[in-house]
Write a structure and sequence with these properties.
alpha/beta, Rossmann fold, seven-stranded parallel beta sheet, globular
């Protein structure tokens, strides 16, 4: 295990995409954290890593399959040994794939659960082991409205998101007394991404009216959660545009 007396601090973002995950990594990097970011393809991470480094921060990209236990164990061990202690962990894998329950396949249902729930358990468990030993740290799970109520056509996604919320609740109750803050963020609404811009232009047009979520503003809330004093920890935080129905 590394000597963490040199004040190095790492944020590990699992699922550091071009929008929310990347914005969270940049936000923590601006605060002096070394951003360790993962996707299944390392090539897709290079623009994010370059952007953080260009702004004066530090970042490392890792190709990792968050569903594979051996990959997760190796990833966390590598970061803890070679880079620094993971002080903040963000699980940001979505897997939102709509499908009628009448047409859903067992294979796709299981894959969505693996990506959006099981991988959260694997990564959260490995990071928690280190944080508990140090008696400090923050674990943040990105959730969705589907984790609160299922909608027509979203049985697989809702099942996975309900599962990750339950995982976060259990971890918060177990790890809170050990000085590890666990929180669940409900992101409710369209996010400013290329996908929304190209596939849902009418929804994207609401951007000028603050009708879709800005990834940088989402990231500010993740930093806020990590910065909270433990006498006023938040477990669940809802983020949605003013115009979103809920």
């Amino acid at each position: 295990m590394i000597d963490d007396s040199n004040n190095k601090k790492v944020v590990l973002v699992i699922g550091a995409g071009d929008a929310t995950g990347g914005a969270i990594a940049k936000r923590f990097a601006r605060e002096g954290y070394i951003a360790c970011v993962t996707r299944r393809s390392a090539d897709k991470l290079q623009p994010l890593v370059d952007a953080i480094n260009a702004e004066g921060g530090q970042a490392h990209g890792f190709a990792s399959d968050a569903r594979k236990e051996e990959d997760v164990i190796a990833l966390v061990e590598d970061i803890e040994t070679r880079i620094g202690p993971i002080e903040a962990f963000v699980f940001n894998i979505g897997a939102n794939v709509p499908c009628s329950i009448l047409e859903e396949t067992a294979r796709k249902y299981f894959k969505i659960w693996e990506m959006a729930c099981f991988s959260g358990f694997l990564n959260g468990r490995e990071v928690a082991k280190r944080m508990v030993k140090r008696q400090r740290g923050t674990i943040l799970f990105t959730g969705a409205t589907a984790g609160l109520r299922g909608a027509s056509g979203f049985a697989a996604f809702a099942g996975a998101k309900h599962g990750i919320r339950a995982l976060a609740q259990s971890m918060a109750r177990e790890l809170g007394p050990l000085n590890v803050h666990v929180a669940h963020v409900v992101v409710d609404g369209a996010i400013d991404t290329d996908f929304i811009r190209t596939q849902f232009p009418d929804r994207y047009a609401l951007k000028d009216e603050d009708g879709i979520l800005n990834p940088e503003h989402i990231a500010d809330n993740y930093w806020f959660l990590h910065s909270q004093p433990r006498d006023a920890w938040t477990f669940e935080l809802d983020l949605r545009p003013w115009s979103e129905r809920w």
